Amino acid sequence: MTSIAAATPAPPRARKLVGAGRRQWIGLLYVAPAVALVVVFFLIPLGMTAWMSLHNWPLMGEHSFIGLGNYAAILRDTRFWNALKFTGYYTVIVTIAIFVVAFPLALFVERPRPLTNLYRTMFFMPAVVGFASASLLWSWLLNVDSGLFSPAAYDLGLIDRKFNLLATFQPAFWSIIAMVVWKVAGFTMIILMAGLQSIPQDLQEAAVIDGAGPFARFRAITLPLMRRTLALALILSVAGSILAFDQFYIILRGGPRNQTLTAVYWIFNQSFVSFKLGYGAALSMVLLVILVALSLVQLWLLRKPEGLD
Amino acid sequence: MAQAASRNRRLAARIAEHSTGIIASLLFAAPIVWAVLSAFKPAQEARLPPLPPWPTTGFSLENYATLDTFGDGLWVSAQNSIYVSAMTVVLSVAVSVLAGYGFSRFRFPFKDLFFVLILSTIMIPFQSILTPIFLVLTKLGLHNTLTGLVGVYVTLQLPFSIFMMRNAFDAVPREIEEAARMDGAGNITMLWKVMLPLVWPGVVTIALFAFLGAWNEFLAALVLMTDQSKFTLPVMMTALQSGRFGAIDWGAVQAGVTVMMVPCLILFLVLQRFYIRGLMAGAVK
């Protein structure tokens, strides 16, 4: 189940078609719309972010150049650093939680047997639902009066008073973790499953003959051969979590007591609630540097095994 | 004796396996099922905790009907969402098919530079350049328009879909093209009549991803659409759920969430193999 790209070698590019030369230039026309979109909606905004970050830039009125003033302000902005710290904390916890659920699921659905396809589909379903829909759905389930969890626990006699899960930090935070794991685990499962299936069966069989137990086989064969898959699943989870916004905005509104403001949420507040566009741009630059650094780590983690390129 | 014992053990193992599978499946499906079923309760009942999830005081479409009474109404938002998603699908497919063909079959100046430029946009999340996008749209007169939002969504799809289409075209043998050219096919005829049918599965995959991306996107729509008449479903439903239209009507939230989820689920169930293919193509990259 790999892409056709992996299976088919690229056709020789040097070969010329009939009447080459001028006709090749037409290629520029084909890619022009895509390049134009990327320039307008990506390259220019990217340049502008850097430019704006050096300005005091209100929504209305003139903007003025203030050099590194915004960056100096960031250093003193404890709420931003708290948001960044919270984002990091959330990223670590949610990534671990996703793997703890997704890995057993991947092992469970890896081998074909009756009903496996049904299980895969069921586990994967929440992944195609949007984060906003999932958040709205869970904000209802988590509601203290009209929701499911608190009234159900009360009816079962587990608690003697209805408990508002969203009122204090710990239960609110773990509710979000539960929701994200529900939504994302199936996705991670499919990626891990592809990695498991790519391990040659005869390797495992040989190890069985050599007397290796299931745990030893997992450690000596499965894990090392899944390095790139694990790295990929890890990166997708980390990159997605660092940019988390929807669930914290919709379910918690950054609360309780602003304790669940993420980095993107803080940038959103500064740029589009307080309309400090220059400052928001400077914050974006900081986030951007962090993400590009992560991308470089990603390229290193995903490098092809030596001698196999 | 021993044989019977081992058969029993195998049976027990199988029962354990499938009970695990069924229970886990139910857990994953439960929140979705809960919302879909509860939405059919009369408004009075929908306000109470959903125990049991199905309507007990009679089946009703009241919650769907009330949705249209908030702000500019759900129907307006649904139309906006449909328009934005459909346009994103059509435009991202058109742009990516052209670009994929161009990158696969022609040599021209700056080709590698352009390809790397498009793919590298995936490294920088749009969340960090949203402010200037807002200003660029204002400059273009596209501020607070669905067209502007479509432009942003199409650009977001490009790295994945152009990569997919380039690979799909690369996999088509050159001989097919050469034969068609002998028969006098021009560039456009070639692409439309000869190549497109061969890369059709790739087109379905990128269309599916474009639809899901546009239908589910929240942050850009929240920031860029300031006028209620331009809200897409996620923005509209969040406004409703935040109490912007008075006391929160949870029955309406259930109905709205159902409207948001069902198209994604149906498309996924029907086009599952294309979805998984796309996921794998992204994964082996």
Automatic annotation (TrEMBL), chain A:
Query: Which GO terms are recorded in the biological process aspect for this UniProt protein?
Result: transmembrane transport
Has UniProt tagged this entry with the keyword Cell membrane? yes
Alphabetized, the UniProt keywords read:
Cell membrane, Membrane, Transmembrane, Transmembrane helix, Transport
Per the UniProt record, the source organism is Mesorhizobium kowhaii
Primary location class:
membrane
Name of the featured protein? Sugar ABC transporter permease
- Which Pfam families does the UniProt entry name for this protein? BPD_transp_1
User: Where's the ABC transmembrane type-1 domain?
Assistant: 84-298
TM stretches of this protein = 25-51, 89-109, 121-141, 172-196, 229-252, 279-302
Which is one Gene Ontology cellular component term of this protein?
Answer: plasma membrane
Instruction: Give the family, as the similarity comment puts it.
Output: Belongs to the binding-protein-dependent transport system permease family.
* Membrane topology (UniProt): Multi-pass membrane protein
Q: Which cell locations does it reside in?
A: Cell membrane
TrEMBL record, chain B:
Q: Any keyword Transport?
A: yes
Q: Name one Pfam family in it.
A: BPD_transp_1
Write out the entry's keywords from A to Z: Cell membrane, Membrane, Transmembrane, Transmembrane helix, Transport
**Chief subcellular site?**
membrane
User: InterPro entries per the record?
Assistant: MetI-like, MetI-like_sf
Q: How does this protein lie in the membrane?
A: Multi-pass membrane protein
**Positions of the ABC transmembrane type-1 domain:** 78-271
Establish whether keyword Cell membrane is in the entry.
yes
Family recorded in the similarity comment: Belongs to the binding-protein-dependent transport system permease family.
List cellular component terms (GO).
Answer: plasma membrane
Protein name from the UniProt record: ABC transporter permease
Record GO biological process: transmembrane transport
- Cited Gene3D superfamilies: MetI-like
Q: Where in the cell is it found?
A: Cell membrane
Spans through the membrane:
21-40, 82-101, 113-137, 149-169, 190-215, 250-271
